[in-house]
Design brief:
The chain is low in regular secondary structure. 14% of the residues lie in helices and 3% in strands. A hairpin with a 5-residue loop joins β1 and β2. The two termini are 37 Å apart. This is Stabilizer of axonemal microtubules 2. InterPro entries: SAXO1/2. It comes from Rhinolophus ferrumequinum (Greater horseshoe bat). One of its GO terms (molecular function) is microtubule binding.
Length: 399
């Protein structure tokens, strides 16, 4: 059984658990230790069928068939004329004269006074707002008096109805016999004052102990704080630069030979632009005939109010208030009998099945509340802190 926080577990089952289940000593199984590895002495035969069947042959580098480039460098100046310069010589070409006639037209300085076909055919007109065909919302009062005849009034023919027989209202006549208001509840329960029922529940006796409560639990006893060593920090090896100077030369840097090259002259032809000294005339007939006019936004067209506002104080009288006639409310007579308890001379029988069949039992105290349970003998404590008790069996005398 557990101690500490597990003392609330009832020890009533110690008799079966302690007698049937005995603790056995657990022997740890021996662990198999692997044998130390010892390498075999001698050399390993690494020969394969590939090495045995395919023998290696000496391979010579392939000879280059391309002839070596011979660079003949002479210090003297090369004085030769190539075939291109010899065949294609520069000739003295004279510039051809232009056959374009000279400009004889000069724009007039006086304003052009003639009108165009656009100005003659399209005369500007004054813009007028369109007439609205929307019917006016003003109520027009007719001069002829109103004729209230409708198709229903003209086509409907009234018929004379027969007079209905008025049924006379029956007068209520109470009966001469008395009203029987006796129910089963009033017959069986006559409302006698009897003695209160006795409580058959046994008195509650609280078990108290004078011993001080031990705050130790299984968790506190089994799990003790252990010191955790700090984690090991791996040391970083210090960087040691290599000795000597670094060779930064590459094959491109070593084999590259710089040459002086001249910039290519562009062969784009020279543009011959004509410069006119007279000013540009940016006027047109559209700009002169259609100048910018100041436009104003048309305002809102508000209609005048036709119905005048009412004057005077509002009456506030509706048709419901004027036609409603108040009537006096007559309450309905209640036929409910008067709730008066009936008294009887017979005593009240308060015997119930609970009071007759209930058998009080003795309340047993849980053995876990004691430090040493009475009737049990302490045997041992296991590794987890559980205490085991054995029940004392009385000795039977032989006859």
């Amino acid at each position: 059984m557990r101690a500490g926080s597990m003392r609330s577990w009832c020890l009533c089952q110690i008799c079966t658990c302690g007698s049937d289940y005995r603790p056995y000593e657990i022997i740890q199984q021996p662990r198999h230790a692997p044998e130390e590895y010892k390498p075999n002495q001698g050399e390993i035969d690494l020969g394969t069928t590939y090495k045995r069947d395919f023998n290696s042959y000496k391979i010579q580098p392939v000879a280059i068939v391309r002839p070596l480039e011979r660079q003949q460098v002479k210090k003297g100046k090369l004085d030769t004329v190539p075939t291109y310069k010899d065949d294609y010589r520069a000739w003295d070409i004279q510039k051809s004269e232009l056959y374009k006639p000279e400009q004889s037209y000069y724009p007039p300085t006086v304003k052009f006074g003639n009108s165009t076909t656009f100005q003659d055919n399209y005369v500007p007109w004054e813009i007028q707002p369109r007439q609205s065909f929307k019917p006016s919302s003003v109520v027009q009062r007719p001069t002829v008096p109103f004729n209230g005849d409708t198709s229903h009034h003209l086509d409907y023919a009234p018929y004379q109805l027969e007079s209905k027989l008025a049924r006379p209202k029956e007068v209520y006549k109470p009966t001469n016999q008395p009203f029987e208001d006796l129910t089963t509840h009033r017959c069986d329960f006559q409302g006698l004052v009897g003695a209160t029922a006795k409580i058959c529940r046994p008195a509650h006796t609280r078990v108290t102990q004078n011993a001080q409560f031990e705050g130790s639990t299984e968790f506190r006893d089994s799990f003790q704080p252990w010191e955790i060593p700090p984690p090991k920090v791996k040391k970083v090896q210090e960087y040691v630069p290599p000795t000597g100077s670094m060779q930064l030369h590459s094959t491109s840097h070593l084999d590259y030979v710089p040459y002086q090259a001249e910039r290519v002259i562009p062969i784009r032809p020279i543009s011959h632009r004509r410069n006119h000294h007279f000013p540009f005339q940016g006027k047109s007939t559209t700009k002169e005939d259609f100048p910018a006019w100041e436009s104003c936004r048309q305002g809102l067209i508000k209609k005048q109010q036709q119905i005048p506002n009412p004057s005077g104080k509002f009456d506030g009288l509706s048709t419901f208030r004027s036609h409603y006639v108040p009537h006096e409310l007559i309450p309905t007579e209640s036929c409910k009998p008067i709730n008066v308890p009936l008294q009887s001379s017979c005593p009240f029988d308060d015997v119930t099945m609970y009071s007759t069949e209930y058998a009080p039992k003795k309340q047993e105290i849980c053995p876990a509340s004691y430090a040493s349970p009475p009737g049990y003998i302490f045997e041992n404590t296991n590794s987890q802190g559980h205490k085991f008790f054995r029940k004392i069996t009385p000795a039977v005398k032989a006859f």
